[in-house]
Design goal:
Layout lengths: L3 H5 L11 E4 L4 E5 L3 E7 L8 E5 L4 E11 L2 E10 L10 E5 L2 E7 L2 H26 L1
Parallel strand pairs: 1-6
Antiparallel strand pairs: 2-3, 3-8, 4-5, 5-6, 7-8
Protein name: Inactive protein RESTRICTED TEV MOVEMENT 2-like
Family: Belongs to the small heat shock protein (HSP20) family.
Keywords: Cell membrane, Membrane, Plant defense
């Protein structure tokens, strides 16, 4: 028995186009100050809409993205980072500017106070030493 599609002269066709994905690992670095940790990821050529930032409840940050290069090619990446132990995971923010992704990870309030106090103590000790050397 002939199918309806066959009688109409139409056939099911697969129009799946093969895309080529070029995987890469962007350069990244961590920095911090007394209030937060900052993850920097260098992503030249990417747009904000092409990126995805996820934080899970296991202390991991996943940064990924893909962008169209043309002629059936995409460039894509995916990197997973561990959160610092003193991170306040509920307050993480991301900012993308001129090809650079900033993941701003605030430190827990207790940790910030302790580090600030430690820096103040170190500064006071340095000042005392300088005064002794002058005398």
């Amino acid at each position: 028995m002939e199918s309806i599609a066959g009688r109409r002269g139409t056939e099911q066709r697969s129009y799946s186009r093969q895309f080529v994905y070029e995987d890469f690992q962007p350069s990244s670095d961590w920095t911090q100050d007394s209030e937060c940790h900052i993850l920097l990821v260098d992503l030249p050529g990417f747009k904000k809409e092409e990126l995805k930032l996820q934080v899970d409840n296991l202390g991991k940050i996943t940064v990924g993205g893909e962008r169209w290069l043309g002629e059936g090619k995409y460039s894509r990446f995916k990197q997973v980072f561990s959160l610092p132990e003193d991170a306040d995971a509920d307050k993480i923010k991301g900012k993308f500017d001129c090809g650079l992704l900033f993941v701003i990870i605030p430190k827990k309030a207790k940790e910030v106070k302790e580090e600030t106090k430690k820096q103040e103590q170190e500064s006071a000790t340095e000042t005392e030493e300088e005064e002794r050397q002058k005398s």
